TrEMBL record:
The lineage of its organism: Bacteria, Bacillati, Actinomycetota, Actinomycetes, Propionibacteriales. It comes from the Bacteria. Signal peptide: none annotated. Residues 26-143 form the Dienelactone hydrolase domain. InterPro entries: AB_hydrolase_fold (IPR029058), Dienelactn_hydro (IPR002925), Dienelactone_hydrolase-like (IPR051049). GO terms for molecular function: hydrolase activity. This is Dienelactone hydrolase family protein. The keyword Manganese does not apply. The keyword Hydrolase applies. Gene3D superfamilies: alpha/beta hydrolase (3.40.50.1820). Keywords: Hydrolase. Its EC number is 3.1.-.-.
Amino acid sequence: MTFPAGWTRGSHTYDGVSHGTYRRGSGPAVVVVHEIPGITPEVAAFAHELVDAGYTVVMPSLFGTDGAPMTARSTARVLRQVCVSKEFTKLRSGVTTPVAGWLRSLARELHEEVGGRGVGALGMCFTGGFALAMMVDPSVTAPVLCQPSAPFAVTPGRSRDLNLSPGDLDIVKGRCAAGQQVLGLRYRSDPAVGRRFGTLTTELGDAFVRVELEGRGHSTVTTHRQQVAVDAVLEFLAANLRPAS
């Protein structure tokens, strides 16, 4: 059976790099970037919620086995894959993950096709900060950071890092100063996020909208989802992608 059922399989190529994609729905475009270990059934289910809410959703497949459940074995296998890939930064501070260029290209193409005010970008866990990097491109008008966890928070400095180069951070700050907002979601006791929410508030001020859940969960809209988090995402996307009333 094709996974996920009912989605159209495609691909996108930028600068000689190709990744598969899944697409479904109509309306404003949203790019949902999966967490480790890949497009799990929980990730696909969340993406389908966005389709039901009236969005054109594209899920790039960056690593892992599409449709495989999250297990200790699959997570360990994908971590090994990610750690040797040049597309992703794992420990370096003050740099933008290389795959951001590919994701920005995907967002631009979607915006050219679908039109509207812009494209939503949602990353999770290891890819959480990718949505911020995508915001460097003006086509992205609704960046959502779900428990951003890269670079790995193994030192205080890395736990504060936003996975952005200084130049890209300046562009993000400029867009926020002009009125753009950024949504961030996390569990308060999640160590993987480190101190990034503090950095985001310091750098972006009131433009950074924080949704912080109580407890020791991690995946705010998938495995440990809470409806308040999903509702916050839907409200943010509507405010930044739907026609202004």
